[in-house]
Amino acid sequence: MNNRTEQQAGVLYAAFSYILWGVLPIYWKLLHHVNADEILANRVFWSFFFVAAVLFFNKKWNLFTGTLRGFAKNKKQFAALAVASLLISINWFIYIWAVNTDQMIEASLGYYINPLVSVLLGMVFLKERLTVMQYVSFALAAAGVLIMTISYGQFPWIAMSLAGSFGLYGLAKKLIKVDSAVGLALETLVVMPLAGIYIGYLFFKGTNSLFAGSWSTSLLLAGAGVATAVPLLYFAKGAQRIPLATLGILQYIAPTLTLILGVFVYHETFSTIHLLAFTFIWSALILYSLSRTKLGTAMTVKWKKEKEMQM
């Protein structure tokens, strides 16, 4: 397979993963009658066993066990793994809860803001430098969030919690450079025992939805592991084949589909104020994406030269 064919395949894999993530709210809506905490527990629990099966059949089980032994000996790596596991669990819970309480529009806003939050965290914690265009994109995004805050009469905490938790998750993952499937298995393994205990607790109380009543509900809860792992596995296949700039543009597929679902399928309110706020956010993302291209780099260099000449 030549390089061009590899890249084309990579775009298809990555786009497919983002499409799956974008329509995932439909899956959680089918479980609207189940509490978000029970959905999360089943998502974590079954994700581990599904990914473990994938690793076994793909002959990566030895890689998983070897990586696990390495983490057991390296406290810094294990701490980063534990933090990543906690953050992604928080992110999953907020997202499921937001979808099933008819707040998909704000949830989509969180994933639009996420790339900018990630860059900001890189600047603060990794001392990465920002370009002028990236600073302007932050100002536009901040204006969008401010408009939402004023219109709601409260801070859009769902959007910012999703963006913040996923951004911090990405930061923690910087310290854990492993195969994506192995990484998901490790992350779910850390919290899987707690998820299993919680599911057992619900069984003991008699308030469980898993294997109680409808078989469709039980299958959907158990299938949450597949729904979680499949897009991630396709994402990994795509990310290995295409440039980060292409991946960065494709990532907006997911929140766009979620926004469309929220407005046109589940009929959530999308007011003029929402449109104004999202316009600021979209403008920020266009500017941010442009800053990562050759044109954006050339414009930054030109601006620096002009500034130096004025001094």
Care to give the gist of this entry?
The protein has 311 residues and is an all-alpha fold.
How do the strands and helices of this protein lay out in sequence?
Blueprint (H helix, E strand, L loop, with lengths): L2 H27 L6 H22 L3 H13 L1 H26 L3 H22 L6 H21 L4 H17 L6 H26 L9 H25 L4 H7 L2 H13 L6 H20 L2 H17 L1
3D structure, described in words:
With 311 residues, this protein is mainly α. The chain has one domain (3-310). It contains 13 helices and no strands. It has helices at residues 3-29, 36-57, 61-73, 75-100, 104-125, 132-152, 157-173, 180-205, 215-239, 244-250, 253-265, 272-291, 294-310. Helix 1 (3-29) runs antiparallel to helix 9 and helix 4 runs antiparallel to helix 7 (157-173). The longest helix has 27 residues, at 3-29.
Overall outline: globular
The SSE string, one letter per element, is HHHHHHHHHHHHH
Give me the count of strands.
0
Oligomer: single chain
Mean pLDDT: 87
Largest sheet: none
Share in helix: over 70%
- Taking all Cα atoms into account, the compactness measure Rg is 21 Å
